[in-house]
């Protein structure tokens, strides 16, 4: 919102304060001022002149020689190249010695042999925003109204000895989107009253009753709570007076004609958007506020045809649309030079509806900006009357008697009870009831005393942002002054912050994975449906969840696995000659069994990792080997060991997308929580990857199994006794089951067990394999004897023979 200092002074006494000082006070009270712009860009000695005559330059076709009366007592000869200069015009004249914004100093000069004693100026040369003026004026000199007095300073005539405050308003302070709203704010800060504009008129003799000529109804009752209209006849459409144009241009609005300019002026003044219809273009003078029909079209004032839908609110005449409510009028009811009868609209439209319509159409206007933030419901009639009075004054109109209106919802005033104790308790202040009441009085809030230190505050309708006690407390804080609020320590029970177990585990896992040489990847939660079909991960029977408004087809479905995007990242690196890739990701996937969603999909936190390429760089000391299954398994086992996770085993498996002989399920408490292995060769070839190994597991389950307690085991004082054995078993027997059985039988005396060789060959038979296992026995309490270790080891051999049909290999 741009606030003219001179215009503001019409409503509140700002004497004694510069625009910059007001900006500082506004910012300190909660409304930030982005800057203060001086409309005078350095203009001096420019006055109003009268062009008495214009003749062609004798030696230049594009130049004219003008005789100008600038009120100096003698006529000035000025050479001018503007196409639109003509005798009889009032124009800005820069006298000899004058300064202009671009640093130009006007001097006596000869142009093609003809002396020139000044310069006739354009709006741009005066530092004005000429884009706000008609095109013909943009391209030539600025022509002033005929009644402008000769010799007056152009600074006064164009009101450019003014400063403009640019308010950066938060969405809740829509009350300051008006000059009166800014005046109330300044008045509260300075402790000065606000002078309201002159009231409007009720009607004129001889114009008849408005209700006999126009009618209003609201069909879309939920989207419009109040619609009011006045009829003005005998209107003369023309150029607005200069003071009105100046105020609009200071606010950044282009003057159009006196009728449209008045509606914009009152909108800026009250914050209530208005619209003027050519009443003769409305069928039977009727207005119906209704929702648009599917596919309905309207050409708006910007000469663009808009296609509408039922979510949009329209103003119609019962037969055709004539405006998009709160956004822009239609070309078919535009006020033109030939308009003589005006139907003037003032209404309260639903802010959400206007905002949605404006966004859908890509059409944002000064009116929609205010409506979407909810306008003051009690300003509908005052603004309407004010505009009608100005049209009667500046457009020679005759206002018909009465207002024609329709109301679907009455406005309920806001009343809030509050106590001085509550205010002081929040702010840490010791303000008295009278001091608090004085602050509300400065804000023009009506206050009634209640019992004790209580107050009943009647909030004016212009302050729609105040609905609760905390809002009133904020008003007291900012008007009392944030700098005046003492610094006090909070008197509350404090609780130190901490991480949940899941959060701690997540950080530990991230540290362990990076410490193992893997790089963390963060990929999109959205994927292509084909990737889910190709690799769905741990959840084979899930239904993919499609997005209703995807960014693209590549990101149209919620992922069910982290692996596909890690494969994409690996391929991206290989395509750039980074063949050795080690990545991991911690992220959520989205799981549901429903093909038609009735509830939110379940989110599950997964850990995934990928290895491909060499396990070390090329070096003269040795040949680097390719990564394999056990490299990745070692990374995972390191994580499990650090977290103290027990009872996790690996069982051979053949899930889709994996190599049938190099893959295992990760099992905990009899439940599959993950998968680890090499990608299927066909998938590797499709992805153009070398041998690639991945694992993916449920991190939340891992966190539940983790034991965060660190235990210290001292170095053993007593020697260990080692035993080795090689047993022949069927190929179908899982080595892990052998090891688990041996550990179970050996009990607490077994310190470690390790499989160090697996052999298959013709000597054993096609369906047999030899498993060599190393045992280390030790106790921390004493030295074991060879006899007891041998006895225990024999029990282990017997258990393997009985349980798996194992035979000791000689």
Word description of this protein:
It is a single chain. This protein has 810 residues and is of the alpha+beta class. The strands form ten sheets. A seven-stranded mixed β-sheet has the order 26-29-30-34-33-32-31. Strands 5-4-3-6-9 form a five-stranded antiparallel β-sheet. A five-stranded mixed β-sheet has the order 11-14-17-18-19. Helix 7 runs antiparallel to helix 10 (380-394) and helix 14 packs antiparallel against helix 17. The chain is elongated, with a radius of gyration of 42 Å. The protein starts with a strand and ends with a strand. The model has no long low-confidence stretch (mean pLDDT 90).
Kindly report the spatial arrangement of strands forming the biggest sheet.
26-29-30-34-33-32-31
**Mean pLDDT value:** 90
Q: What form results from the Cα inertia axes?
A: elongated
> For the terminal residues, how far apart are their CA atoms?
96 Å
What is the helix content? 25-40%
Strand content: 25-35%
Global structural class: alpha+beta
User: Unreliable stretches, pLDDT < 50, 5 or more residues?
Assistant: none
The tally of strands reads 38
Number of helices: 21
C-alpha-based Rg, rounded: 42 Å
The largest sheet, given as strand count, sense and whether it forms a barrel, is: 7 strands, mixed
Q: Could you provide a short overview of the structure?
A:
The protein has 810 residues and is α+β, with helices and mostly antiparallel strands. It is 26% helix and 28% strand. Strands 26-29-30-34-33-32-31 form a seven-stranded mixed sheet.
């Amino acid at each position: 919102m741009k606030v003219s200092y001179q215009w503001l002074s019409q409503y509140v006494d700002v004497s004694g304060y510069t625009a910059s000082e007001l900006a500082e006070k506004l910012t300190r009270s909660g409304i930030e001022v982005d800057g203060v712009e001086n409309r005078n860009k350095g203009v001096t000695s420019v006055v109003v002149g009268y062009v008495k005559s214009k003749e062609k330059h004798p030696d230049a076709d594009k130049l004219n020689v003008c005789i100008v009366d600038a009120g100096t007592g003698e006529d000035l000869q000025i050479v001018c190249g503007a196409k639109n200069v003509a005798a009889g015009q009032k124009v800005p004249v820069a006298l000899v010695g004058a300064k202009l914004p671009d640093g130009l100093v006007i001097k006596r000069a000869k142009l093609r042999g003809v002396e020139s004693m000044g310069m006739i100026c354009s709006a741009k040369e005066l530092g004005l925003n000429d884009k706000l003026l008609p095109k013909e004026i943009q391209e030539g000199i600025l022509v002033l109204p005929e009644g402008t007095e000769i010799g007056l300073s152009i600074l006064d005539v164009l009101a450019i000895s003014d400063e403009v405050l640019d308010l950066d308003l938060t969405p809740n302070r829509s009350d300051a989107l008006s000059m009166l709203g800014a005046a109330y704010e300044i008045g509260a800060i300075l402790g000065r009253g606000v002078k309201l504009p002159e009231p409007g008129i009720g009607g004129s003799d001889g114009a008849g009753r408005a209700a006999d000529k126009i009618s209003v109804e609201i069909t879309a009752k939920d989207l419009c709570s109040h619609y009011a209209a006045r009829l003005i006849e005998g209107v003369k459409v023309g150029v607005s007076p200069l003071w009105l144009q100046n105020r609009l241009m200071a606010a950044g609005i282009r003057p159009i004609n006196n009728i449209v300019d008045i509606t914009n002026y009152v909108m800026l003044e009250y914050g209530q958007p208005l619209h003027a219809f050519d009443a003769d273009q409305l069928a039977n003078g009727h207005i119906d506020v209704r929702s648009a029909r599917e596919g309905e079209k309207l050409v708006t004032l910007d000469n663009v045809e808009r296609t509408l839908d039922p979510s949009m609110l329209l103003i119609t005449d019962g037969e055709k649309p004539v405006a998009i409510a709160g956004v822009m009028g239609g070309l078919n009811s535009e006020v033109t030079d030939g308009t003589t009868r005006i139907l003037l609209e003032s209404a309260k439209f639903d802010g959400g509806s206007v905002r949605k319509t404006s966004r859908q159409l890509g059409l944002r206007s000064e009116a929609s900006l205010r409506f979407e933030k909810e306008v003051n419901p009690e300003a509908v009639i005052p603004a309407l009357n004010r505009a009608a009075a100005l049209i009667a004054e500046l457009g020679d109109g005759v206002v018909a008697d009465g207002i024609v209106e329709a109301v679907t919802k009455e406005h309920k005033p806001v009343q809030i009870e509050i106590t001085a104790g509550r205010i002081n308790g929040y702010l840490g202040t010791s303000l008295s009831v009278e001091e608090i009441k004085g602050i509300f009085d400065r804000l023009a809030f009506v206050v009634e005393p209640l019992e004790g230190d209580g107050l009943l505050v009647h909030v004016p309708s212009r302050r729609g942002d105040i609905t609760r006690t905390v809002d009133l407390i904020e008003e007291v804080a900012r008007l009392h002054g944030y700098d005046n609020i003492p610094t006090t320590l909070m008197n509350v029970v404090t609780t130190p912050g901490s991480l949940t177990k899941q959060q701690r585990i997540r950080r530990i896992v991230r540290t362990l994975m990076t410490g193992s040489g893997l790089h963390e990847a963060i990929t999109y939660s959205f994927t292509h449906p084909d990737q889910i079909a190709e690799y769905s991960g741990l959840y084979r029977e899930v239904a993919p969840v499609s997005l209703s408004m995807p960014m693209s087809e590549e990101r149209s479905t919620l992922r069910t696995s982290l692996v596909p995007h890690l494969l994409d990242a690996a391929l991206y690196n290989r395509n750039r000659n980074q063949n050795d890739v080690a990545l991991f990701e911690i992220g959520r996937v989205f799981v549901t069994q429903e093909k038609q969603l009735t509830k939110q999909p379940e989110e599950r936190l997964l850990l995934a990792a990928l290895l491909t390429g060499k396990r070390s760089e090329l070096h003269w000391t040795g040949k680097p080997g390719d990564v394999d299954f056990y490299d990745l398994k070692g990374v995972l086992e390191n994580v499990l060991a650090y977290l103290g996770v027990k009872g996790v085993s690996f069982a051979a498996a053949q899930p889709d997308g994996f190599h049938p002989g190099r893959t295992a399920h990760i099992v905990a408490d009899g439940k599959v929580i993950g998968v680890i292995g090499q990608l299927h060769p066909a998938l590797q070839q499709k992805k153009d990857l070398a041998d690639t190994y991945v694992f993916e597991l449920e991190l939340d389950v891992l966190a539940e199994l983790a034991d965060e307690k660190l235990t210290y085991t001292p170095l053993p004082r007593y020697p260990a006794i080692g035993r080795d054995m090689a047993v022949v078993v069927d190929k179908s027997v899982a080595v892990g089951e052998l090891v688990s059985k041996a550990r179970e039988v050996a009990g607490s005396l077994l310190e470690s067990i390790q499989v160090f060789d697996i052999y298959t060959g013709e000597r054993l038979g096609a369906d047999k394999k030899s498993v060599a296992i190393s045992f280390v026995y030790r106790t921390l309490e004493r030295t074991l004897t060879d006899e007891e270790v041998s006895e225990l080891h024999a029990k282990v051999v017997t258990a393997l023979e009985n349980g798996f049909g194992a035979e000791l290999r000689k």
